[in-house]
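Thought: the user wants the 3D structure for the chain below. I'll pass the sequence to the structure tool as-is, report back what it returns, then summarize two notable features.
Action: structure_tool
Action Input:
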Amino acid sequence: MAARTRGKVSRRGAEEAVRTLLRWAGEDPEREGLLDTPKRVVNAYRDWFSGYDADPAEYLRRTFKEVAGYDEMVVLRDISFESHCEHHMAPIIGRAHIGYLPANKVVGISKLARVVEGYARRFQVQEKLTSQIAGCITDVLKPRGVGVVIDAVHQCMTTRGVHKRGVSMITSRMTGAFRDDARTRAEFLRFIDIRGT
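Observation:
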């Protein structure tokens, strides 16, 4: 839907919107240092919000079944990402940790990182991002359980409003065995080095 909406706004219209914001902020968009700023901002937006053109589930469709019966936990931790808060359009910078218990197939680990990117490169709230990643892996791979933990810093809180630095937000989504079995959940949290009870 977002890609279709973007198609209704021309590049020229998007650049003019940036010029309007520059004028609103008190700047002169015709000043030498700002002449190419609208073009640069629109290019940056194409990169930052490329997730609207991606189907994260597609990354998980190629799986491997020849794993010699491996059925223990698979964990990919410290997946760095950048997103943007849908309330203030400010950056969210963080790390995602993903674990799953395969049922009868596994996926290449880079695909898990691509799922994170596919959802992170959209306007987000962290809780929704966490749920979307877990839901996608659950729906496509059909594992015995999924665990997703995200630890992120929100610039909408550190650079405006309450201006609190050094604060991060942690969210988690546990499904299947990760939700139902405390030992499985504890093993996952130990693997990603998050302490708790």
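Final Answer: Structure generated. The longest helix spans residues 126-141. The longest strand covers residues 74-85.
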